[in-house]
C-alpha cells in the first residue's frame, strides 16, 4: 500500500510490524543517450512491479529522487545534495517513521553513490535507538536482488550478456530503459565500451566520473536490448518482492 493514498488514521491503524519501504534514487547525468532521471525511473519501475505480489506486505513511501551525486557534477543538469545533508534528510525520514512506531524499515536504493551514505545512516540510527530490540533497519540496492541469467553456469546465457554487474548508463541501465520506453533512449549502438573496473582493484581509489569516463558512461551500452531489459526488471522486482515478504514474515526474536 502507498502512503500517498492513505489518510493519517488509516496509517495509524496499520500494524507497526508492517515493513516500511523507502525508495531512494537520484537525478544525475547518464551520458548522452539516457535521461537525467534514469535512476529514479528504473527504481520506480522495479518498485511498481514488485507490488504485484507484495503490495499488502509493506507500506511504500514516495520515492526520494534527490541523491548523493556530487561525483557527476561536472556534467550539466546533475542535481545533488552534499553527503552530510543527504544523510540528515534520509535520517530525518527514518526518524519520522520510527516516531510513528514502525519497527521494520527497508531503504531500497537505485543509485551507487547512495550506498555508503545509506549504510552510515542506518548504522547511526541503530546506535541511537539501541534500546529498541524490535527494530529492524535494512538496506538493499535493487540490482543486487535476484539470480540473473548472466550469473549462472549456462554458457549460452553467458554469451548473451557482456556485463555481469551494474555499470553506469551501461548495458543494464540502457536495456531497462529500452524496456520501459524506447523514446527515452538516444543513440547508443555506436558507443565504444568503457572498462568496468578501475586499475587499482586491490585498493579503493577516490574518483569523480570524468576520472573514469569522459562521456559519462561506464560499461557497454551498445549491447543493450529491450529483451535484456525485461529480464533485468523482472529479476530485480521479483527479488525485491521476495525480500519484502521475508522481512514481513521474519520473527523478531531471530537475527
What this model shows, in words?
By secondary structure, the protein is of the alpha/beta class. It has a single domain (3-249), classed as Creatininase (Rossmann fold, 3-Layer(aba) Sandwich). Helices cover 37% and strands 7% of the residues. It is built from 8 helices and 4 strands. It has helices at residues 8-12, 38-54, 83-99, 115-128, 155-158, 171-180, 209-212, 226-249; strands spanning 20-24, 59-60, 104-109, 136-141. It has a 4-stranded parallel β-sheet, with helices on both faces. Strand 3, helix 4 and strand 4 form a beta-alpha-beta unit. It is globular, with a radius of gyration of 19 Å. The protein starts with 7 loop residues before the first helix and ends in a 6-residue tail after the last helix. The model has no long low-confidence stretch (mean pLDDT 93).
Topology of this protein?
Blueprint: H1 8-12, E1 20-24, H2 38-54, E2 59-60, H3 83-99, E3 104-109, H4 115-128, E4 136-141, H5 155-158, H6 171-180, H7 209-212, H8 226-249
Parallel strand pairs: 1-2, 1-3, 3-4
Strand order, largest beta sheet: 2-1-3-4
Shape: globular
Mean pLDDT across all amino acids: 93
> What's the β-strand tally?
4
Distance between the termini: 26 Å
| CATH superfamily annotation | Creatininase
Q: What is the total number of structural domains?
A: 1
Which structural class do the helices and strands define?
alpha/beta
Radius of gyration: 19 Å
Helical percentage: 25-40%
* CATH class type: Alpha Beta
Count of helical stretches:
8
